[in-house]
Design brief:
Elements lengths: L4 E4 L4 H14 L4 E5 L12 E3 L5 H10 L4 E4 L5 H6 L1 H21 L4 E3 L2 E2 L23 H20 L2 E3 L1 E3 L1 E3 L12 H11 L2 E4 L7 E5 H13 L11 E2 L3 E3 L1 H9 L6 E4 L4 H6 L8 H7 L7 H17 L1
Parallel strand pairs: 1-2, 1-4, 2-3, 4-5, 5-7, 6-8, 8-12, 9-11, 10-14
Antiparallel strand pairs: 11-13
């Protein structure tokens, strides 16, 4: 029996590119994109349903009616946006997960993917090469909800045998769709403004190091994790995922090698405190060992890809 995949939150930064990759792999008709918003233009070639993740009955009807066998639950309120309205962010992030976990068990969905984040870490976490098992004391409502969500996913695996898989994403950098209000979004905006204005004012300080990843690597990691044999998935919280770590000053220097006159200035705001609570770099050796993960893009190759693709997109 072929899988039918439902992506909830397909209009977001990860969702658009994940839907495209899954459709290329499994066929357009097997991957149903859904979002509370109208469909992204890039997703017009396959099935789409308007869906509010907070409406459990509506989600259940889609799962039943489309005979869904796998769900990717991507709908969430991210770090910077969540801090503006913490209780709203908690409500959406947690209720949506608990509702979908129950639906998966009751409707016998074979696999659920739910993303976690480096936001689960906090100021007491080791800053460099943060290990898989370590102190987790998040300081944002987004991080708190992700930590709680990891525990709920592990609970549903242990109690009900639900095959839930998860990754702690670092900051994700992409050009196809807009970022969703995260603290690492500067690393997307900087490329756009470099091309449009030749300058950028960064909301983080110049030597703030954060773990980052080009979206192509993140999408590949997600699919590789979901396709790995069940017996290889030995971690049911969420896998650390490492990519590249750099500061705003370093990404600016990388851009300057392509746009020599580019300038950057710094005006740290409330997001600086969030960034300061996160690690500088991530140890993802368990993902390497369990399912063969390895990133491909470094800072230079990512900068080349971002500028090349954004030039074409911004000219349209």
């Amino acid at each position: 029996m072929e899988d039918t995949i439902l992506i909830i939150g397909a209009g977001g930064q990860i969702g658009v590119e994940l839907a495209l990759a899954l459709r290329a792999r499994y066929g357009n008709d097997r991957v149903i994109a859904s979002d509370i918003k109208d469909p992204h233009p890039l997703l017009s070639d396959g099935p789409f349903v308007h869906l509010d993740v907070m409406d459990a009955d509506a989600v259940r009807q889609v799962v039943q009616g489309k005979k869904v066998t796998q769900i990717y639950l991507l709908a969430a309120i991210l770090s910077a946006t969540g801090e503006k309205n913490p209780l709203w962010a908690w409500d959406i992030n947690m209720k949506s997960l608990l509702s979908v976990l129950d639906i998966c068990v009751q409707e016998k969905v074979s696999k659920l993917y739910w993303p976690s984040s480096i936001a689960v870490f906090g100021p007491t976490t080791p800053e460099n090469h943060t290990p898989q098992k370590t102190v987790l004391e998040p300081t944002t409502v987004y991080g708190i909800s992700k930590y709680a969500g990891e525990l709920w996913c592990q609970y549903y695996f242990n109690k009900y045998g639900l095959d839930v898989r998860s990754i702690r994403y670092p900051g994700l950098i992409s050009w196809k769709s807009a970022p969703g209000g995260g603290t690492t979004d500067y690393a997307i905006d900087i490329y756009i403004e470099a091309l449009q204005k030749g300058s950028y004012t960064c909301f983080l300080s110049e030597n703030t190091y954060l773990p980052m990843m080009y979206m192509d690597d993140a999408i590949r990691a997600t699919i590789e994790l979901m396709e790995a044999p069940k017996e290889q998935i030995r971690n049911r919280l969420a896998y650390n995922l490492g990519g590249i770590s750099f500061s705003p000053a370093e990404i600016a220097a990388s851009i300057r090698r392509h746009i020599p006159g580019f300038t950057i200035s710094y005006a740290p705001d409330f997001r600086q405190a969030i960034a300061d609570s996160w690690p500088n770099s991530i140890d993802d050796s368990e993902a390497h060992k369990d399912w063969g993960w390895k990133h491909e893009y470094d800072l230079e190759s990512m900068t080349s890809a971002m500028l090349e693709n954004l030039k074409v997109k911004l000219a349209q």
